[in-house]
UniProtKB/TrEMBL annotation:
UniProt protein name: Predicted membrane protein YciQ-like C-terminal domain-containing protein
Taxonomic classification: Bacteria, Bacillati, Actinomycetota, Actinomycetes, Kitasatosporales
Spans through the membrane: 6-28, 164-188, 194-213, 314-334, 354-372, 379-395, 415-434
Residue ranges constituting the Predicted membrane protein YciQ-like C-terminal domain according to the UniProt record: 49-268
UniProt cross-references to InterPro entries, sorted A to Z: YciQ-like_C
Alphabetic keyword roster: Membrane, Transmembrane, Transmembrane helix
Species of origin: Streptomyces aureus
Length: 524
């Protein structure tokens, strides 16, 4: 065995050894079992806040509904007020009280929730649906910070700890890249080039580090397991009340902190669903632009031809549709029955396959259109090859091909396709002409900014003009600068393609309470 082979086998052995040690560490640090206590309505002396209870109730894996539970706890303590004007819980509103405007002694995550609510309810209150964020990144960042702060509070109370000790996790991380070092030396000695050596050196370590990162998290302390058992008893007591799960948020005035703990423990399904601190419903966004809060429905024209297209692109699409219509028309008129292709049969005779001719004309017309439109790719060629496979045109199973090939003049389907592509070409030409008109000017507030597949594809920008409860998203070119949700802008648009030609900032986005000044915490 050569030295190069020894290095490769040594690296493989180290990977196996690392996986064994990693497995043993996982087994040794798995979370203990929670023994539910008897059903009880007591919180106990110095009870943990609902945000921390959400971590204990989820077996230290997450803090689902922690923000909603914290908001209800703040309401039970008189810092915020929840009102339900009618019989519909979704129309409840949240208001900041005088006590909440100067609330001392809050934990960082409680302060985070209060600041978010205060930012949305600054002008006399806001619908509970307005608490949700308007974009995914901000919602994810806010909730990640909330989780870190709740975990820090749980550690401070002695209820949670790192799953792996810092020394163990550091040692596993460093050792994960040792096999790659052996692979790199072996690759260099084997004359595989610098790129190959770097790849075989980094790839194993990156994969092992990914496994390690997925395993890092929290696990219970003995005290944490004991307190989790107590809260499991409270969950059992709350679950015994059949109507508790459907209590609205405003019922906190009756149930006090029980509603907050029930939400943290996953008992109150309705309240947890209505009080969302996530990215919200992308098709229904609450807006106060214009003076009053109201829900604005958003339509996204994903299937609209020419949406966000420039004049040059529209002319290109018009030419492509015209080419398809012209090619189909010429093929349908010139086609003759004797064009069928004759091939050798198994018995020595010949077999005519008219379906091959038809498909060649149809597929060829489509390919010409894709080439003109600039949409041709290797996958297009692969699909065309599948469409032209001889097995698709066996006369025994597709007898209609013979009848179609013998038909005099264009087929009904060909006529329909010619008319459709001709209309599409006319439509794109009309849009290109409309693009030459002076753009319209619109002023409003940015509700949402949604990305689409592809780096060069225009993004959706939903704008609230303040005079309607229904809006259709505009196309913001990919090269345009990012616009913060909540900003008031003046845009110049082309109505035909709904393309934004220019954007002028009228007023920057108001703070949404997604950032608070809190002590720096170690990442879990």
């Amino acid at each position: 065995m050569t030295l190069t082979e020894q290095l490769y086998w040594g690296g493989a052995g180290l990977i196996a050894l690392w996986l064994v040690v990693f497995g043993l560490a996982l087994a040794a640090t798995r979370n203990g079992a929670v023994t539910p206590g008897p059903a009880t309505q007591e919180f106990g002396t110095d009870p943990e806040p609902p945000g921390v209870v959400s971590l204990l109730g989820n077996n230290w894996r997450g803090v689902e509904h922690a923000a909603a539970a914290t908001l209800l706890d703040l309401a039970a303590r008189g810092l915020v007020e929840l009102r339900q004007p009618g019989d519909e819980p979704a129309r409840s509103t949240v208001h900041l009280t005088e006590a909440g405007r100067a609330a001392p002694g809050l934990t960082p995550y409680e302060q985070r929730v209060l600041v978010r609510v205060a930012a949305r309810a600054a002008n006399g209150g806001a619908p509970i649906g307005a608490i949700a964020f308007r974009d995914d990144e901000r919602a994810a960042s806010w909730n990640t910070a909330l989780r870190r702060e709740i975990i820090a509070e749980a550690r401070l109370r002695g209820l949670s700890r790192y799953r792996f000790a810092p020394l163990l996790s550091s040692a596993l991380l460093v050792c994960a890249f040792v096999p790659g070092a052996l692979f790199t030396v072996a690759a260099i000695m084997g004359h595989h080039g610098v790129r190959g050596a770097i790849f075989v050196g980094v790839a194993p370590g990156a994969a092992l580090a990914f496994l390690l990162g997925k395993a890092l998290g929290e696990r219970a302390t003995p005290k944490g397991l004991e307190r989790a058992g107590h809260w499991a008893g409270l969950r059992a007591w709350l679950t015994a009340h059949e109507d508790f799960a459907q209590l609205p948020p405003a019922s906190v005035t009756v149930w006090d902190r029980y509603l907050a703990y029930g939400t943290a423990l996953g008992v109150t399904s309705l309240t947890g669903r209505l009080l969302g601190f996530d990215s919200g419903d992308r098709r229904r966004v609450w807006s106060s632009y214009g003076g009053t809060w109201r829900p604005v429905r958003i339509r996204y024209p994903r299937l609209r031809p020419g949406f966000g297209g420039s004049t040059g692109r529209l002319l290109q699409f018009a030419a492509a549709a015209g080419v398809v219509a012209g090619a189909l028309c010429a093929f349908a008129i010139l086609r003759q029955p004797d064009w069928a292709v004759a091939v050798d049969a198994h018995d020595g005779g010949s077999l005519r396959r008219p379906g091959l001719v038809l498909s060649a004309g149809w597929v060829g017309s489509a390919l010409l259109g894709l080439v003109v439109a600039g949409k041709f790719s290797r996958w297009t060629l692969f699909v065309a090859f599948l469409a032209m496979m001889p097995g698709n045109f066996a006369s025994g199973s597709h007898g209609w091909f013979r009848d179609a090939a013998a038909h005099e003049g264009p087929l009904f389907g060909e006529l329909a396709a010619i008319v459709a592509f001709g209309a599409l070409a006319t439509y794109f030409l009309a849009l290109a002409c409309l693009e030459r008109r002076e753009p319209y000017t619109i002023t409003g507030e940015v509700l949402r900014l949604e990305s689409r597949k592809g780096k060069e594809v225009a993004r959706f920008l939903a704008l609230d003009e303040g005079n309607t409860d229904l809006t259709t998203a505009w196309a913001l070119p990919a090269a345009s600068q990012d616009i913060a949700t909540g900003a008031q802008v003046r845009i110049r648009v082309s109505r035909g393609t709904r393309t934004i030609r220019s954007v002028e900032l009228v007023r920057a986005a108001m703070p949404e309470g997604d950032r608070v000044k809190a002590p720096k915490q170690d990442a879990p």
